[in-house]
Structure formats: C-alpha cells, structure tokens
C-alpha cells in the first residue's frame, strides 16, 4: 500500500475497489481531487435544498458554513415551491414580492410549515378513518397564491404593530390559527 | 318534564324553527312488571345500555351516556323556556315572560357552559333579560358610549373575530378574488371599501395585483369609516400602512379616507371617481344595517335603496357583497328570536371547533357576536341595526337597483375551500349556488358571498375608456349629490 504512484495497472475485477481506495487516500492526504461536501457552498446549497423543513432547520445547526448556506433564501424557495402545487413558474417577480414581504424562509416558518403540518395531521386522521393514503393529496391542497396572501396579511399586521401608538398591545398575528392544535377527530 | 331515560336523541336543530316542529323524544312507556306488579320505565328506543350487573367500565360508560342525555334534555328544556319567554314578549305579557325567564336562568345552571347550547343560551338569556328589564344608563352600552371609544372597542372585537374563525377571511378572500378577476387587464383600479376597519382585506389583494401577469395596475383605495376622535385619523393611519406595503411590493398606490357615520351619508361626489378607472365596490357585512323595518306598510324608503342607487351610478366593474345568511329581519319577535337562536348556535359551534374545541373560544370574538345577538333581541325600530337577510332577498334588492349578478367562478371556490380546509376540515363547508359562494357549518349556511355589476344599458359600453359614458356618469354623479 503506497501512494498514488503505487497503484498498479488496474486488474479488471478489482478496478472499482482500487479506484475508491485511491480516492480515499487522496482525501485523507488532502489531495486535489477530493469531494468534501463543504468545499463548494453552491453544491451544499443544492443538497440542502432537497431537504424537508425540519431537516433543513436541523442542518442549520451543524456548523457555521451550513448555517450560512441554510439561511440562503434560494434553499427555502426550493422547499416552498416543492410543497405547493400545481407549481406555477415562479419568476423574478414572485421572488421580488416574497423578498419584500420577508423572504421564503419566513414564508415557510410562519405560513407553509404550520399549514402543511396541520394538513398532514388532518390527512393522517383521515388515513386512520378511511384507510386511504391521502398524503400526496394533501400536499397539493395549498396554493402558492393562498400562502402568499396569508403571508402578506401577516406582514401587514407586523407593520402595524411596529408603528401603532403604545396604547394597545400589538394585535395577534392572523397566522396564529395555523399553530393552534386542531381537533380533527 | 321527565324527558330523561335511555332514549337516544340526536341533538339536531330542526330545519323549520318553531315549537311545533321540535321533535320531542318519545315519552318513556310504562311497562308493568308482571312478576312483581311494579311498573318500571322502559324507553321505546334503547340506545345506551342500562347499568346491568356488568363490569365497572360498562357502568361508567352508561353513566356518562346518561349524563350526556340529561344534559341534552336540559338543553332542550332551556330552549323551550327561552322560546316561551320570547312568545310571551311578543304577546305583550311581561309577567309570564319574566316567569319563563326566571325558569330559564335556573335551567342554565343545569347546562354546562362549554357545550353547544350552553354558551349561546347564556347570551340569549342575558339579551332577553336586558330587553325585559332595561338597565339604567350607568353601565355604558354601545349606544351610549362616546363614539370614539365605541369605535375602538368595535375594532378590537372585530380583529379578534377575524382571528378566531374562518368567516371574515372567507369574506375577504372571496371578495378579493372577484375583484381581481373583474379588473383583469385594467391599468387603473379604484376600490371603494364600505368599511375599512384595519384594512385587513387589502394586503392580500395588493400582493395578488403585484404578481398579476402583465404587471400591477395603479391602485386607488377609498376607505369609508366612522369619524375619528379629534387628534387622530384612523383612516389615514390604515392608508399609510397599506401604502407602505404597496410600496414594498412596487404597486403604485394611493389612499383616501371618507369619514361618515352612516353609509347613506356618502355621496358619489365624495368618492371622486375619475374617468377611465375600473371601479370596484366592496361591502363586507355592511348592507344589512341599512335595511328598514319590514313591518312598515307600505315599506318606507330605506337607506339601502339610496346606497344601492349610488353604487349603481358609479357603474362598477364589480360590487362584492358578503352578508350573513340568515333571516333576522322578520317583523314577529318570536320568529326572529328563534331564527337567531338557531343561527348563532351554529356559529358558536363552528367557532368552538375552529378554536380547537374544548370551549377555548376567544372571549373577544364571543363578545363581538354577543353584541349582534343583543341588537337583534333588544333593538326595535331604528335602534336595531343587525337586520340580516337571506341571499335570495339580497338578489331581489340588488336586481331592483339595476345590478346584475356576476358568477364567482371556480378559482374562488377552490381558494375558499383551501382556506376553510386549513381550519378543522370537519364541519365547515363551502358551497356554490347560482354563482354565489356560501360558507356553512354542517350544511347550515352562515355567510354568503356574491358579486354584482351594473347592468348593461344599450348606450353605455362596459369599456372604461369610453369618453361619452365617462361624461354621462359624471353628470349623473353631480345630479345625485343634491
């Protein structure tokens, strides 16, 4: 077992093993050809963009790099668009509006996430009762326009809470209803 | 009055309210025991198991079932008492009415306040006693409060009612969808909101217009509301907030507030409709306050007719109307009372479920409804403002004013169903009938949303760029403002 120079002419059946071993050694040695997941933030973003909400939030706790990448709105955009359907082509206009209202990460945290949880619980309850797999069905029961509308109302209410005179306590957020436990029995 | 026993009685509101229609459970039949000669009661239709000498869980379950039925029976008894009291009030017999009321108070103790009938019965009993024994002016009622405080209180309760149930959200989203579809392709949109409150309806529309294919129009909003106390301009504050939001999503937006205590005080010239604008008028739960008493014969000219004339003269692209789906404008007190009792118990039930069940309804949302109940039960003549009418009567009225119905479309239905489905999926339903959407609770319609537009005359075109029609409507505006 030596360095790269020691790799012999590859014998057919063991070619794959040798190649993998070679790469592993190069990785350990900090070689040029390595594939560390942390090397390229964009690739990391691509990977994280395929996670679900909870996993993404957990990924943000791994290290500073992952926290920074997980904070990218593009990652949350991919997550949001995956969960609403039928997916409209979300062009730059949508992105601008969502950014103005607070970003996709906030949209997911305040609106889509709780709504999907609630619909998921409802679907599960129905699953027990009706013995149907309704999971795919419930994922498309939210539309992007509806979520954006709810999001804009919430954004508006927070605007008011900031500027209203201190006479009254800030009004309750209209998205709170999504967090309340629902009896779906 | 022994209505207990093992009879199973599904506690269902009869579709035709009235004492005769209430189905009483079958009276227990007396079956003499041949062996011992002692009569015992056996229910005609045994649903719950009688406690046999069985295991303890069966006994506990049977006991719970019996308790439930006792509560149901107590609830039915309470409803009968309330209706008898209302009947006595209608007949002008205060002595008998107060006797029934006293019984009702006593019966209230037997009914749990968190169950379906219990909570709403509390409010109706309180309203009846307020009607029979009007309080001295020391406790401030909504009528005697200084208007500024009353408006602030109302805004607070309204906001909580908005949060607690799907009704106002359904109203706003459906109206917005109608407006969005009607102003499709227009470059200048002018929305007139009959009751601005905190403007919660408009952020969603502003956002939807921002994302409209082809770019947003320039948006003008005229918000009508009660006058603010000196030193404050509540309407303008709301306008500023909406303008902030519109600016952040790059929608050209301008706002104007019109302060008026009553809608019929608003004249067309105050709204300053410009030529070339697509006008949309929005009325959420406002029209019913303008209706006059049905009992007048011949019916007096009601403020509603003036307002509808004003709306029609604006030639709006769309007039979005959301109203309660109930008949609370009947002349006879007992009829009105019964209708209201059934309607509000459905609303309270649905509010309970929407709040997560278990009686955790927001007190402010309940207080909002309580005010309506009090108004319907206690108010007479010009005092009564909550004059809800069913959709079919609104259809007639709006038709007489020269407005034609615009069907709401599949998008509105789908969105409403999605929205309502985010709440407890069980129970709330959105139905479509004749182009109007209805939000209901277990089949009982509660709120209806519809859209209208000015009927086409042969010489007026629908296009908002037609100079001659613009000129014609301006003239009619001037002549209206006498």
From TrEMBL, chain A:
GO process annotations (BP): gibberellic acid mediated signaling pathway; regulation of gibberellic acid mediated signaling pathway
Pfam families per record: F-box-like (PF12937)
InterPro entries given in the database record: F-box-like_dom_sf, F-box_dom, SNE/GID2
Highest taxon above the source species: Eukaryota
GO cellular component, one term: SCF ubiquitin ligase complex
Chain ranges of the F-box domain: 42-82
Cross-referenced SUPFAM superfamilies: F-box domain (SSF81383)
Name of the protein this chain belongs to: F-box domain-containing protein
Organism per entry: Digitaria exilis
Species classification: Eukaryota, Viridiplantae, Streptophyta, Embryophyta, Tracheophyta
From TrEMBL, chain B:
Region (SAW): 378-453
A Pfam match: GRAS
Highest rank taxon of the organism: Eukaryota
Annotated spans, Leucine repeat II (LRII): 237-269
Record keywords: Transcription, Transcription regulation
Residue span of region Disordered: 455-482
Keyword Transcription regulation appears in the UniProt entry: yes
Record's keyword annotation contains Membrane: no
Low complexity bias (residue ranges): 461-482
Motif VHIID mapped to chain: 189-193
Listed InterPro entries: TF_GRAS
Alphabetical list of PANTHER family matching this protein: OSJNBA0084A10.13 PROTEIN-RELATED (PTHR31636)
Protein name: DELLA protein DWARF8
Lineage of the organism: Eukaryota, Viridiplantae, Streptophyta, Embryophyta, Tracheophyta
